Amino acid sequence: MNKTGVLYAGKAKTVHTTEDPELLVLEFRNDTSAFDGEKIEQLERKGQVNNEFNAFIMQALQQAGINTHFVKALSPTESLVRNMKMIPVECVVRNRAAGSLVRRLGVAEGEILDPPVFEFFLKDDARHDPMINESHIATFGWATAAEVTRMKELTLAVNAVLKKLFADGGLLLVDYKLEFGRFNGEILLGDEFSPDGCRLWDAQTLEKMDKDRFRQDLGHVIESYEEVGRRIGVQFS
Ligand code: TMP
Ligand code: ASP
């Protein structure tokens, strides 16, 4: 599938148009950003590691019956996806307390959250992705009530599949962020699932193995992403 132009360049990925208006190419770059783009660095091999990690997870989710935009990997750093109308809302599920939940509510990092916490954030870096609720989504028309219900349902279905997949690799899925889009009247999972958009801790030592290593300058960022991948069965090229 030939790329015909750049549709959008995000912080870590570039979205290319193709000859088919229903398909896009996602190019995973080495750029790594945190704090809504305040901290940006290039990490060698990150584009490839996240593209291959994401392809593995998207395929696992498809096999579990969760429809995603993913079509196939095209190269070490590129994947073909369906061209969706993105919903500007981020869906976050938390199985353990970490990150902004700890800062907002003062709960202890690592506290088990049962039932898991579900949160919506508005995708708006300039405003630091403010937390929103269903009332904001309805009033401002970001998604319909049926779409909100579907996004919650799919986000929690992903939790069941991925908690188990990571647990089998000796990892705790602490939290994660998903984005959805519309395609032919259906809501599909979009964006990516990689250690850039979730928290994963070693189940025994509770060592952080995700983008918090970059945010908190803990070192060995990509090595940890690869270790997570290897533990769940990703075959890196
Ligand atoms: P938070 O603790 O910063 O609110 O993030 C919760 C989870 O969602 C964490 O795994 C990081 C992910 N996330 C993103 O990847 N991008 C975002 O813009 C936000 C708000 C969260
Ligand atoms: N993904 C956001 C950013 O790149 C937030 C974060 O990961 O800290 O800035």
Description:
- The chain folds into 2 domains: 3-82, Phosphorylase Kinase, domain 1; 85-220, ATP-grasp fold, B domain (D-amino Acid Aminotransferase, Chain A, domain 1).
- It is built from 6 helices and 13 strands.
- It has helices spanning 46-63, 99-105, 134-139, 145-167, 212-215, 221-232; strands spanning 3-9, 13-18, 23-28, 31-34, 39-42, 70-75, 78-82, 85-96, 112-122, 131-132, 171-183, 186-189, 198-202.
- Strands 8, 9, 10, 11, 12 and 13 form a 6-stranded antiparallel beta sheet that branches.
- A hairpin with a 2-residue loop joins strand 11 and strand 12.
- The radius of gyration is 17 Å and the shape is globular.
- The structure holds thymidine-5'-phosphate and aspartic acid (ASP).
- Thymidine-5'-phosphate (TMP) binds next to strand 8, helix 2, strand 11 and strand 13.
- The site of thymidine-5'-phosphate has 14 residues, from strand 8, helix 2, strand 11 and strand 13.
